[in-house]
Amino acid sequence: GDIEAPGVIRHTGTMARLAFGERDGRDSDRVEALCAACEAAGIDCKASRDINKDIWTKFVMLSALSGATALFRATVGEVLADGDRARVHAALIDETLAVASASGVGLADDLGEKLLAQCRGLPFEMKSSLLVDLERGNPLELDWLSGAVVRKGRELGVATPQHAKVVETLAPYKSGA
Fold first, then answer.
1. Of 19, 52, 124, 145, which is most buried with the most CB atoms under 10 A?
2. Is 91 within 8 Å of 104 (Cβ atoms)?
């Protein structure tokens, strides 16, 4: 989304499903109430029985896509259409999957392939919010995306060279213009 005015966010993205759930996977009144409120407001939502898995799945997609588009200052389509850029994007996915696995999160073995297929279905001209912020000279969420992958990888002994490259390349722009 874009900040249209103070306190007003204009939703512009195509990925707009809200997932939520209790950390332990149990049913709860508050999850049911939130789900009912979202549905009443026309918000696409999912009450999750494994929110940790859902968070990591989204994080794998987001960290890789934002890292690749911002690193190359290119749209999703431009990244995927270039063999070298596409390989870096795939490596970013693999690195985050390895960190998730080392963290004890059980993700599907074919998740990387599914996420790549999902990326191929995105609009060619789509840009990550990280790239949009970079282009506008805004502060970057670098520490919470590729930076988080690098930190967690270091902590768990998982190599994350492509995410480290994203962090190193974009670090001068982290605080904005």
1. 145
2. no
Report the C-alpha gap between 22 and 103 in whole angstroms: 19
Cα end-to-end span (Å), the chain: 20
Is 34 in contact with 46 (CB distance < 8 Å)? no
Work out the number of other CB atoms within 10 angstroms of the CB of residue 79: 22
Count, residues in the chain: 177
CA distance 64 to 107: 16
pLDDT at 142: 96
Write the pLDDT tens digit of every residue in 89-100: 999 999 999 999
3-state secondary structure of 108: coil
DSSP 30-49: HHHHHHHHHHHTT--EEE-S
Cα separation, 33 vs 36, whole angstroms = 5
Predicted model pTM: 0.81
**Closest by Cα among 99, 95, 102, 90 to 65:** 90
- Six-digit token pair at 5? 């005015």
Whole-angstrom distance, CA of residue 127 vs CA of residue 72? 11
Q: How far apart are CA 23 and CA 43, in angstroms?
A: 22
